Batch of 3 targets.
Target 1
Amino acid sequence: MVLVDTSIWIDFFQSPDSPAAENLARLIVGLNQVKLCGIVLQEVLQGIRGTYNFELVQERLLRFPFVDTDRETWLQAAILYRSLRARGITVPTTDAAIAALAIQHNLLLFSRDHHFEIIATDTTLRLY
């Protein structure tokens, strides 16, 4: 299963012919392998202008299996963030949480965000 990050969803909705969007379409249609989490749901939806588009995208996203965060997710995100920061690497808090969630649930993470490549070098985060 693949946890899909905001950057890929934006490509999917705004640039459907992009390689990332095409890969996501294959994961959805051919393999039914996509999962969604709260932070990504929020980030995607908060950037949509117009009520009609918001409702359309919301309806489509809510069809995907949802991965919930729990106390352990947030603890691991904090540990991950602190570990990186101790080495002089600062990542957004949301990226640390998404990475921790993917690691916790043994999910591949599909993203175009370079922060995840950095995180993957020192953790068990697996990228799609």
Target 2
Amino acid sequence: MKLTVKQLSRAAVIAALYVALCFFLKPISFGVIQFRISEVLCVLPIFMPEAIPGLFIGCVISNLFGGASVVLVDALLGSATTLLAAYLTRLIYKDTKNFYLSLMPPVMLNAFIVGSYLPFIYMQDTLSVFVVLWSILNVFISEAIVIFLLGYPLAKALSKIKF
């Protein structure tokens, strides 16, 4: 993807916003129970392709400095999940023009991928199938709340703006 200076600037602003939201709300952005308000920005790939690398870079920076005991795992897997979810969000919206369907990748991918490895990072001494399933459910619920209660109205509002 070749970006113009304007698109590169937008990507940088999106990355910075993602990091700022994560660190401003650090107590709820990191840990085995997460509620990342910064995930509201996952609606932006619907409107601009530069949001995809912006979200990825913001997630990498956030996960590298977020305080996980095994930072590299979260920085690699969590950021790759965000990258894939952002790409799929854009692709699905281009095909369907449906906000609800296009906002499912961040919810589903984060729930199953991030939710599956968080217990291994934060709760090594109490691991069980129940703990992993609980983590998946927790990430699913928190991501769905952010994406559909905050992100969907944001997407509707942004759809009235020409980018």
Target 3
Amino acid sequence: MNTKIEGNAGENAAADYLENKGYRILERNYKCKAGEIDLIAYKDNTVVFAEVKARHLSGSGYAEEAVPFAKQRKICRTADFYRMKKGLTERLGFRFDVIAINHGVLKHYENAFPYCGTG
């Protein structure tokens, strides 16, 4: 399976999973000059910025290992742009999740990494 098709299938599965858990999907593949966030969702007064990673081949490691610090920082910067653009205040919580799909098995890591700032 090519990586683009695999990525789209993973994002669709992750969005379905979140919706089934009561989240409302606000954005899919949100892009700005800082980067891209796969899914932005909302539940319980919290905006969730989710990175989706899928792996079907055992030689490429676990999906959740594919979000290194540099990627986390890029996601945080992109989240800052999103929050500014939408006028989201500090009263609204936010967090960074990773949804990993390994060999078709989905695992949701809430608060997978802390806010990294823009430094």
